[in-house]
């Protein structure tokens, strides 16, 4: 049989040079979009009563917090004096009157951060269901202190009033962020916006370790000026509220308040005896130790701890 003629192989038509350039540019653009950081979400001041400041992506953004981890102010025992001072200061600020930045310092576990959240909850307690309160709480982490100017710029034109909250604020010898905080609190050209106030908690009264100030003092030309430069940071806070270790009576008052509020079914004598033993194993009496005992007790009793209203 005669063989069929073999057709010569056909090469694919070459794409025009313009199409190749367009494809290459599209691939480059897609790669750059994957490498670029996502855009920060737009700030909605009515989204919640509390926000967390995130410094990345720049220039930073506020994430709404739907539910605040807080206890009602009536359950905070042993801190009545500082409670009333901070509540009065915050109420004046919420009404648009002059108020001071506040530094809550002192013994660990005595309710410094709990008080800030409880005061915020007490002021917003009368808000209408489904609506935001007059006061918003904004948490900023210590490592994000240098981005405070960007946060203040974001809040400056807002119609709401904001309590900036920095928990466990302190600085080490190599940490220069305290200089940024000093400028924001008092020394900047623009100053702190009228609708913003700063509350910070710390175990250190002057926010800086004693050995840091002593080292500066020993090597400085003028030792007095070296210490003054460090201490001037805490001077930027108009209110210094000290928290001290609680007495056994205060410890029992905390326990009784928690037990009654959460309906724990236990005799008061047994409650106190077990709590004393618990505190001895921890080597301390404080609000935190009392709360940890109540959680353990509720678990053993098989009773859930429900969320209480402010």
Short description:
The protein is of the alpha/beta class.
Strand order of the largest sheet: 2-1-4-5-6-3-7
Structural class: alpha/beta
Major sheet description = 7 strands, mixed
Average pLDDT rating: 85
Superfamily (CATH H level) name of the largest domain:
P-loop containing nucleotide triphosphate hydrolases
The end-to-end distance, rounded to whole angstroms, is 100 Å
CATH topology of the largest domain: Rossmann fold
In sequence order, what are the helices and strands, one letter per element?
A: HEEHEHEHEHEHHEHHH
Number of domains: 2
Q: Share of helix among residues?
A: 40-55%
CATH architecture of the largest domain: 3-Layer(aba) Sandwich
For the record, the CATH class of the largest domain is Alpha Beta
Contiguous uncertain segments of 5+ residues: none
User: What is the percentage of strand-forming residues?
Assistant: 5-15%
The quaternary state of the protein chains shown equals single chain
Radius of gyration from the alpha-carbon trace, in angstroms: 29 Å
* H/I helix tally: 10
Number of E strands: 7
């Amino acid at each position: 049989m005669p063989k069929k003629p073999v057709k010569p192989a056909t090469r694919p038509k070459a794409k025009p040079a313009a199409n190749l350039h367009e494809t290459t540019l599209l691939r480059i653009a897609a790669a750059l979009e994957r490498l670029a950081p996502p855009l920060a979400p737009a700030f909605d001041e009515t989204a919640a009563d509390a926000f967390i400041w995130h410094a990345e992506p720049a220039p930073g953004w506020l994430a709404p917090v739907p539910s605040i981890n807080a206890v009602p102010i009536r359950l905070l025992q042993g801190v009545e004096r500082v409670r009333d001072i901070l509540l009065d200061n915050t109420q004046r600020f919420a009404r648009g009157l002059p108020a001071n930045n506040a530094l809550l310092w002192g013994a660990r576990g005595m309710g410094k951060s709990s008080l800030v959240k409880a005061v915020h909850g007490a002021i917003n307690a009368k808000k209408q269901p489904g609506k935001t309160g007059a006061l918003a709480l904004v948490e900023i982490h210590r490592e994000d202190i240098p981005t405070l100017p960007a946060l203040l710029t974001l809040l400056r034109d807002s119609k709401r009033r904001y309590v900036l909250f920095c928990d466990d604020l302190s600085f080490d010898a190599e940490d220069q962020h305290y200089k940024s905080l000093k400028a924001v609190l008092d020394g900047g050209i623009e100053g702190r916006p009228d609708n913003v106030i700063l509350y910070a908690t710390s175990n250190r009264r002057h926010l800086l370790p004693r050995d840091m100030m002593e080292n500066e003092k020993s090597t400085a030309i003028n030792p007095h000026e070296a210490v003054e430069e460090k201490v001037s940071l805490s001077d930027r806070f108009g209110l210094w509220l000290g928290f001290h270790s609680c007495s056994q009576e205060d410890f029992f008052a905390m326990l009784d308040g928690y037990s009654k509020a959460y309906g724990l079914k236990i005799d008061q004598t047994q409650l106190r005896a077990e709590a004393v033993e618990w505190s001895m194993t921890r080597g301390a009496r404080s609000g935190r130790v009392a709360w940890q005992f109540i959680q353990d007790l509720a678990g053993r009793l098989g009773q859930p701890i429900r969320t209480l209203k402010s």
